[in-house]
Structures are given as C-alpha cells and as structure tokens.
Q: What sequence folds into this?
C-alpha cells in the first residue's frame, strides 16, 4: 500500500494542476523537479519511505501512546506546511498548520500532549516574540524551531526561553520525529503537573482570608497556641479554623496537608498579546 501525503497545488508558475494525492515517491519527484525549498529533507524522506511503513506497523504494536499527540505547525511557506502535515500525519500525529503566529493565537486551541513546530522568521510576530507571548499565557507547550534563515542571537534567545530543540532546514525526518516524541512526553508530564496545580488552586480558593492566613502559619510550622497569640485569637478558635482548612483542602490529616501544600504557591498568569 503506497504511502500518501496531501500537498498543496499548484506548486509553481506554469503548473496548472497537480492532484492532491500521489504515492510518496511520485510526490517527491514532482517537488524535486520544481526545486522547492521545503522544510524537511526530501532525500531522507525518499530513503525513509519503507521505514515509515515499518514505523506505522510498529505504532500498532505498542507505540500508540507516543503517537497520540498534537503537533501545531507555524510556517509561512504553504508547500512546507503541506508536506510536513502529510508526513507527520502518516506517523500518527494529529496536525494543525498555521501560516503565521497571529492566526495560531487567534484560532488554535492547544490540546495536550502537544508540541509546536515554529518557524523563526515569520511575517508579523516572529518566532522569538511568539514564544515569549506563549509563555506569558501560562502555556508550557514545548517548542521546536525549524528555520532556514535565522540570526545567531535569535537562536540563542530562543534556547534561553526554553525551546526544546532547533533544526535548520532541511530538518532530517529521522531526527525530527524522535524530537517530536520526546517533546510530547515532556508535555504529557507537564500537563499532569499543571492539572495537579489547578486542583490545588481550586481548593485553596475555597479558604476565607482568615483561613488562608492561618494555613500559611500552619505550613510554616506554627502550632495553635503560637498562631493564637500572633493573631490575638483564642486557641479553640484557631483549632476550629484548622479543622475547616483540612476539610476544604481535602486533606486526610494535618500531616497530609503539610505534605501537599508546604511549597504551594497559587498560580498567576497574564495574557496580553504582543504588538507586531
């Protein structure tokens, strides 16, 4: 059964029609003939056709958990987006592709586990600014840069921001796929941590301001009598507050409360989009 990709068409001036479905080898011949500067290595894809079919078979034998991830491509070259989308879908990923960062931020709804394949040089908001904004929204989705023309300082800044990886075009697919899978595993872990944080936040918001104040003192190791003196309360009043705190935070005991909330800090995010 031939490997199939969906590609945009027409590809070049003078080419009036190209069917959106060809077998993989024919599509590669067409693209090579047009000398398109695409975002992944065609030579690697050509060599890798049989490997891709083997990979697809392997995915059915126990690798499904790694492949059930969402890849978001932000790339301004239509043909690059089309080919990358087809290749990555064949590997079992769910793929959405956007031509610029503004469209991505307006339309995309990131579903974890996910990874963003981000071109460094984009019209409007560039790759670095897009990543900076993404971080201000509280999103921890891993970013892999794929770029053909980047300044060294931009690459350095991207890695300082926490980019998972950086590939120069053409990105060899035998390196890109493992990087995507690693990023998805990382995001799945981070997503679980985020869910736990959100659950703690939701419980913490159930506390009154007095309960929150007393809980902080409990977490600092203060006993009922010490808290009572500091807040000018009766020890029995502090004890009642403590019982309410344990109940609202869904802790089985005071020791459980200390274990879960000792280093807890409520989440805070802001999300003003960057200017172009």
A:
């Amino acid at each position: 059964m031939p490997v199939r990709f969906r590609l945009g068409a027409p590809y070049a001036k003078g080419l009036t029609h190209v069917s959106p479905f060809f077998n993989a080898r024919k599509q590669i011949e067409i693209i090579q003939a047009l000398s398109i500067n695409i975002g992944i290595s065609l030579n690697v894809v050509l060599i890798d056709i049989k490997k891709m079919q083997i990979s697809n078979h392997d995915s059915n034998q126990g690798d499904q958990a790694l492949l059930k991830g969402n890849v978001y491509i932000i790339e301004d070259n239509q043909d690059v987006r089309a080919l990358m989308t087809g290749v990555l879908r064949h590997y079992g990923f769910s793929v959405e592709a956007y031509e610029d960062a503004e469209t991505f931020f307006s339309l995309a709804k990131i579903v974890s586990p996910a990874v963003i394949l981000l071109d460094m040089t984009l019209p409007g908001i560039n790759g670095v600014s897009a990543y900076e904004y993404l971080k201000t929204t509280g999103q921890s989705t891993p970013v892999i840069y794929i770029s053909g023309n980047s300044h060294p300082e931009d690459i350095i800044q991207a890695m300082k921001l926490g980019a998972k990886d950086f590939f120069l075009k053409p990105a060899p697919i035998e390196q890109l796929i493992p990087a995507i899978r690693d990023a998805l595993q990382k995001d799945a872990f981070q997503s679980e941590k985020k869910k736990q944080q959100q659950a703690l936040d939701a419980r913490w918001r159930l506390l009154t301001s007095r309960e929150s104040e007393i809980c902080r003192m409990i977490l600092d190791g203060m006993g009922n009598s010490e808290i009572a003196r500091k807040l000018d309360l009766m020890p029995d009043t502090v004890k009642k507050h403590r019982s309410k705190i344990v109940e609202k935070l869904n802790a089985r005991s005071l020791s459980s409360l200390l274990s879960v909330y000792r280093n807890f800090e409520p989440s805070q995010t802001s999300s003003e989009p960057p200017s172009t």
Q: What stands out?
A: The chain has 13 helices and seven strands. The CA atoms of residues 132 and 161 lie 7 Å apart.
